[in-house]
Amino acid sequence: MSDPELATKAPESDAMEPSAISSQDSKARTGASMGEHCLTDRPNSDNRQPSGEMSKFGDIDVYISKPGDYPNAPAKLLLLLTAGTGVHSINNQVQADMFAAEGFVVIMPDQFRGDSAPNSKAIAPEENPGILEQFKLRAAETAKSFLVDMWLARQTPEKVIPIIFQVIESAKDEYADAVAHGEGIYCVGYCFGGKYAIMLAGEHPDTAIAGQAAKDEEAGMTQQGPLIKAGAAAHATLVTREDLKAVKAPLTMVCVENDPLFPEEILGDGRKHLATSNIEHEIKTYSNVPHGE
User: Fold this and answer.
1) Over the stretch 174-194, which tens digit does the pLDDT of each residue have?
2) 177, 223 in Cβ contact below 8 A?
3) Which pLDDT tens digit goes with each residue over 33-58?
4) What range(s) does the Dienelactone hydrolase domain occupy (predicted)?
5) Which CATH architecture best describes the domain 4-121+156-286?
6) Is 254 in contact with 233 (CB distance < 8 Å)?
7) What is the model's pTM?
8) Domain spans in the chain, listed from the N-terminal domain onward
């Protein structure tokens, strides 16, 4: 789809470089906290600024970045789903610009409707903190983790999927030429957005696509999807076995070893499904790096 280096790390890491829910899966969410790279909009080292623009699809904020020669030269359409820092993150916007430079019209939606993750910048510890300072640091980390958990509880598929679906429908109308040129929509998701990139590559009941809760699915069981031509997910979180077993479109996943936010037992089941179903896929796993690095 593009240079693999563009899609391996959190945008917060890329931008800092000088250049370019099912019960059976509950263990995946226990005792794990989203990484700093997925929650903190750190300043990039060479002070790069976004070149795209904020716009709206209906009532949803979107960041749009286009190749410099578009529309005179054709481009494909890419949906970029962010980690917790959201659409207004400078680093996420710079990341969108990097994909645009590779020949994509990039649509990055506010999938949180203004409710991006709580600021979780680490508190710089003293070289030799006393007992009181150590206690304060631990208390701050505990409070931060609690706020993140509360935020995650609000970001349910029932809330997020309708937002993404609305953006996809609007993008099909607004950039029909790019959709036609790419023979569909491409999608890249980081961390929180990685789960939804995987879901968009799958086939689901029409109620799930509409964002209805599972208890309402008996109202209509027509299958829809995939909604994208191909997807990529970097250090995805909250992914379930059902998400992976539903995949039908080509999929790339970039993961890290021993990631409590994407456990091997779930990834392993997904790997088996993709292989036995003859679905085009690529899974890269990196060792000795934290989630999102």
Assistant:
1) 999 999 999 999 999 999 999
2) no
3) 555 556 566 666 678 899 999 999 99
4) 62-292
5) 3-Layer(aba) Sandwich (3.40)
6) yes
7) 0.77
8) 4-121+156-286
